[in-house]
Amino acid sequence: MKLFSRRAFLVGIASIGGGLAFGYVTTPEPPEGGERAILCPFLAMNPPDTTNVWTFARGCVDNGQSYSMALIVATMVTYAQKGLWAVLRHEAPDIYRLDQVPGISHDDLYQNYIPELREMAVARAVEGQVTLQDLVEMKEWVADQVGVTPGEASKTETALLFVRSGGDLTKWTVALEDVFRLLNGQRPEADTVVTPGKLNQAMDAASWRA
After folding, report:
1. What's the confidence (pLDDT) of residue 169?
2. How far is CA 205 from CA 7, 44, 89, 208, in A?
3. Which residue, among 87, 72, 108, 109, has the nearest Cα to 19 in the 3D structure?
4. Among 196, 142, 168, 130, which Cα is nearest to 151's?
5. Residue 210: is it exposed, middle or buried by C-beta count within 10 angstroms (0-12/13-18/19+)?
6. Residue 76 burial by CB count (10 A; 0-12/13-18/19+): exposed, middle or buried?
7. Which of 59-63, 97-101, 120-124, 131-135 has the lowest mean pLDDT?
8. For residue 41, what are the CA distances in angstroms to 12, 146, 181?
9. CA distance linking residue 77 with residue 55, whole number of Å
10. What pTM did the predictor assign?
11. Based on CB atoms within 10 Å of each CB, which residue in 74, 143, 195, 206 is the most buried?
12. Degrees to nearest 5, angle at CA 164 with 35 and 204
């Protein structure tokens, strides 16, 4: 999976090395940060502690992500947002500026079209379940609305939405209501832990136009 690239691995190693060299330096989130919106529904349902990358990753575990995966993603986002020095200082991502992350931010957000997407999902649902491919086609519809082609980050988000909402990795179906709970920043009833392996399975099973 491209998201977990060689560069991300090297930056992660640099973070550990920097911690040994420079000590455990932390940068808490400014108090006024709490007044701003968190655009990512995966973080909005239970905002993680942003004192440093380690507390951030532990908070992501509470949101249903494996610790190692959370640490890798957090390191990547911090690097893209703030640069290598911030990674070496163990800074967490700025969760209030996730729309300003080069190479990761994207405009085709599900949550900007929830009423329309719910109507689509209800029309497609069978016994309250939609498929992974339904989520793919819904994402492609959103992308069309904003005039973009879904990139790697959008494809990863789609797989993450499916897995975290309790998607079945053999039948490739998921409860419609859990999908929309998550998109609304609420915890799904399915208590599923997202791991790189599960995410890769979902990404490999999805079929995109491009």
Report:
1. 96
2. 25, 27, 38, 10
3. 87
4. 142
5. exposed
6. buried
7. 97-101
8. 25, 19, 9
9. 15
10. 0.78
11. 74
12. 125
- Amino acid type, 93: P
Alpha helices in the chain (DSSP H): 6-22, 41-44, 53-62, 67-82, 84-88, 114-124, 132-146, 152-164, 176-183, 196-205
Neighbours of 139 (CB within 10 A): 23
Q: What is the pLDDT of residue 111?
A: 87
Joined together, the tokens standing for residue 127 give 């016994």
Three-state DSSP at 175 gives strand
Structure tokens at 62: 């509470």
Gap between the Cα atoms of 49 and 11, Å rounded: 21
Which tokens is 171 given? 């039948």
Length of the chain, in residues:
210
DSSP bridge partners of 65? 194
Q: Is 58 exposed, middle or buried (0-12, 13-18, 19+ CB in 10 A)?
A: middle
Give Cα 99 to chain centroid, integer Å. Answer: 12
Residue with tokens 């992974």: 132
Are the C-beta atoms of residues 93 and 76 closer than 8 Å to each other? Answer: no
Residue 187 pLDDT exceeds 50: yes
Distance CA 193, CA 60 (A): 10
